[in-house]
Automatic annotation (TrEMBL):
Membrane listed as a keyword: yes
Record-linked Pfam families: H1_KCTD8_12_16
An annotated GO BP: regulation of G protein-coupled receptor signaling pathway
Gene behind the chain: Kctd12_1
Keyword terms of this UniProt record: Cell membrane, Cell projection, Membrane, Phosphoprotein
Domain named KCTD8/12/16 H1: residues: 26-143
Chief subcellular location: membrane
One GO CC term, this protein: presynaptic membrane
Organism: Crypturellus undulatus
Source domain of life: Eukaryota
Subcellular location: Cell membrane; Cell projection, Neuron projection
Name assigned to this protein: KCD12 protein
């Protein structure tokens, strides 16, 4: 085993990621873009479109541990396990499924954030009475 410039022993990728009980500690962020339309006077029957893609940001080893074969790595292949990436996404489109996998792996939600903007309305060539809104939402999960 090597030593750092300060004289401390260097840790392997698996050692540096392990927390209590031999499980890797860290953070995984789940993000998605969504859109919906609302008719006149913000009617209660807003039409939501399905989630197109769920993105995953975090250390490669953690993401692979939690999501396994459902993790699409095609946008960042051969990423070292101890490195972070924000280029993975899931092969399924159900947030509940992602949340269940994170919970089963011992993660808890630490924070969430969402933004929404009016993408276009009638004045920009959209539907006559509807405004189309887009949103971006992120959920941060952690495991100690």
């Amino acid at each position: 085993a090597g030593r750092s410039p300060s004289g401390a022993p260097l840790l392997t990728a698996s050692q540096s990621l392990e927390g209590a009980g031999g499980r890797r500690s860290g953070y995984i962020t789940i993000g998605y873009r969504g859109s919906y339309t609302m008719g006149r006077e913000a009617q209660a029957d807003a039409k939501f479109r399905r989630v197109a893609r769920i993105t995953v940001c975090g250390k490669t080893a953690l993401a692979k541990e939690v999501f396994g074969e459902t993790l699409n790595e095609s946008r960042d292949p051969d990423r070292p396990p101890e490195r972070y990436t924000a280029r993975y996404y899931l092969k399924f489109n159900f947030l509940e499924q992602a949340f269940d996998r994170l919970s089963e792996a011992g993660f808890r939600m630490a924070a969430c954030s969402s933004t929404g903007t009016c993408a276009f309305g009638p004045e920009q060539g959209g539907p006559a009475d509807d405004k189309i809104w887009t949103s971006y939402t992120e959920y941060v999960f952690c495991r100690d």
